Amino acid sequence: MPNNRSGTLLLAVIACLLWSTAFVGVKVGLRYAGPFAFAGQRFMLSGLLLLPFWWARRPNRSTVCSHGGMILSVALFQTFILYGLFYFGMTLIPGALAAMVIGASPLVTAVLAHYCMPGDRLSAIKGSSLLLGGIGVAVLSLSRQPWVSASGLVELAGIGVLLLANVAGALGNILVARHRTKIDPVFLNSAQLFIGGLGLWLLSLLLEVQPAEIVPWSYYAALGWLAFLSAAAFSIWFILLRRPGVRVSELNLWKFLIPVCGALFSWLLLPEEEPSLWPFAGMLCIAAAIVLFNLQSVRTRRD
Fold first, then answer.
1. Distance from first CA to last CA of the chain, Å, rounded?
2. String of DSSP letters for 6-41
3. What is the full per-residue pLDDT of the chain (303 aa) written as tens digits?
4. Distance, CA of 8 to CA of 250 (rounded, Å)
5. Less Cβ crowding at N or C end of the chain, within 10 Å?
6. Does some domain include residue 9?
């Protein structure tokens, strides 16, 4: 059991590190395409990338039909709504700030899991660690002083859009965890990514002007990397959510790593973004939340 737990934690950290690189890639891609078109292309490609990994053990038609509602529900919350809001929000705020706001997702997930998942209740220590992490995200967000200018109000709206994306992602996680069926999680991920991406791309045809000029190689590099990380990270996450004994709130706590690493990558790779004192203070709160939670977990296992 300890080895299984260690493996779960390692895979969770790997998935979160992959996700933390997305903010840079999204910012690069949005220079040349609308948010819904870029998101749709990314997730359709992600779904196709996973095809070789489940085709040999593909489910039959009756199995797909019996789980069709669940697949569509996951695609709706986990890709279409979550990433429709995420990409739109990314057009309003810097990549580093977006990484920090998305860092509130463990808090949102834990609260929803408390009410939707039997046996996944908030303890005092877990609640305190999540609150500390939420304070870290609040410090990071408010340090931008969004109320002092019109651009600041746009950023505040972007923060609100990304918080709604957190709710959609949390509901998607709960859907996957509650339906512990025999359907292959890699197939589930591939199907929901492609369906959600197709919906976003079709939405872009209605709402966005398609680029006429030839886009540079950096666009395709960002698109390829984002497609890969979605295929890899979501497959890892869906597998972990299906493991016996894995709680949605505990697993999602590791997503507090995403704002820290995402902001660091944005500062290092995007020349228009740079760090300041308050973001570091927020990061310290997030790091303390992770340490506090895991110290309590270690004590529980020893007892």
1. 15
2. HHHHHHHHHHHHHHHTHHHHHHHHTTTS-HHHHHHH
3. 344 677 888 888 898 889 888 888 898 899 889 999 999 999 999 999 999 988 888 888 888 888 888 899 999 998 999 999 999 998 888 776 777 777 777 777 777 877 777 766 667 777 787 788 778 777 766 665 655 555 667 877 888 898 899 899 888 888 877 766 677 888 988 999 999 999 999 999 999 887 667 788 899 999 999 999 989 988 898 888 878 777 776 777 777 777 778 777 877 877 766 666 776 777 778 777 766 766 655 555 555
4. 11
5. C
6. no
CB 106, CB 130: distance < 8 Å: yes
**Closest-CA residue to 190 (of 284, 82, 71, 81):** 71
Number of domains, the chain: 1
Q: Is 75 helix (H, G, I), strand (E, B) or coil?
A: helix
Determine the Cα angle at 256 with ends 251 and 257, to 5°. 100
Instruction: Using the structure block, give the residue that is written with the tokens 């995403």.
Output: 258
- Look up residue 106 and give its DSSP letter: H
Residue 117 and residue 104: Cα distance in Å, rounded?
19
Question: The pTM is what?
Answer: 0.77
Residue appearing with tokens 């507090």: 256
Selection from 235, 166, 229, 255 nearest residue 25 by Cα: 229
Question: Locate tokens 């990409």: which residue?
Answer: 87
Q: How far apart are CA 98 and CA 282, in angstroms?
A: 14
DSSP 3: H
- Structural domain harbouring 135: 15-302
